[in-house]
Amino acid sequence: MIQGKILSYNDDLSKVQHIRNQVILDENGDPKELNQNLNDDQNLKDEFSLYAIVFESNEETEAVASARMYYDGEKIWIDQIAVLKEHRQKGYGDFLMKMLISKAQVSNFSTVYMKAPAAYIDFFKKLGFISLEEVYWIAKIKHVKMYLNTEDFLPPCKKRK
Question: How do 111-117 and 3-7 pair as beta strands?
Fold first, then answer.
């Protein structure tokens, strides 16, 4: 059974960091720009960030996916989405994204933004993200700015009369 947890900067983030390093750094040849960004204390201990981690079972022994959601003072962003290579195509990325989008929604954010790696745009479109056609290069990797209206993702509950 899949289990997901939301973590804050006060929690042990070693499994999050391990997944991020293995997927984001190792699969991209460990570019210096990415390495510095992912492993600095400010990135990991940011009080405006939450981290989602997905475990393959209830025992919380094998972490298979992680991502970060942060507030930049104006908007909520999701980034650093990582699913271990041997665990892809099993629904973990979908579960991970739905956890964070739901968290944004219950926190009263109506829109979530991301800079998605161009190779995965179709995956994010299936979740309802819309491309803004703004292109960014992060460590020589093409990213596209996208957004999702959280009410389109899951309409809010309404009181019965």
Answer: unpaired
